[in-house]
Predict the structure.
Amino acid sequence: MGNPLRQRRTAAELASSGQVIEITEEISSFDRLSEIVEADLVALDADKIPSAWRESRVQGELKFGFVAAAGSMPAVSGQAAVELDAVCQRCLEPFRLRLEIAVRLLLVGKETLANEFDDYEIWELDEETLRPQDIVEELLIMAMPFSATHENMADCKAFSSSVESATDMKRPFAALGAQMKQVAKDPDA
Ligand SMILES: [Zn+2]
């Protein structure tokens, strides 16, 4: 028994067997996703690259079945999430980026005309068979932000350094306050 996530089958086979696939896979088994994460992390100094970045785990579930769109069409629904190592584009420090995807797709061949139906989007199949993992990988890649940054400003060094400069900003006022006290004491100055 191989991993059903990586077995190539037709959409009709997956749907008619009502295949349910539990996903718990390290990102190292997602080639393109790993490449993207690695290309991002090389921006870091070698000692800052999280050593276990390939072990981040994609977890979720896919369910195949038929939906009533245009007669009866194979479809897949489910969800998946992963926490990846990424580089914050504001402070250039590594951080954990959470990606979540919702899967709700009609699996249609190129010749099939289909419209989106009941919140299902169209997933056009290039080939007769599909590998469920490819769907998860594609959706995760599409969910990656164009510019990943710390979600919480308190965690981001770019903001903590701006807090420091805000503190610096107070000093001129303190100096000005001291000058004014001086003026008050000595109005002729
Ligand atoms: Zn940051």
Q: What stands out?
A: The longest helix spans residues 157-185. The chain has two domains: 9-151, 153-189.
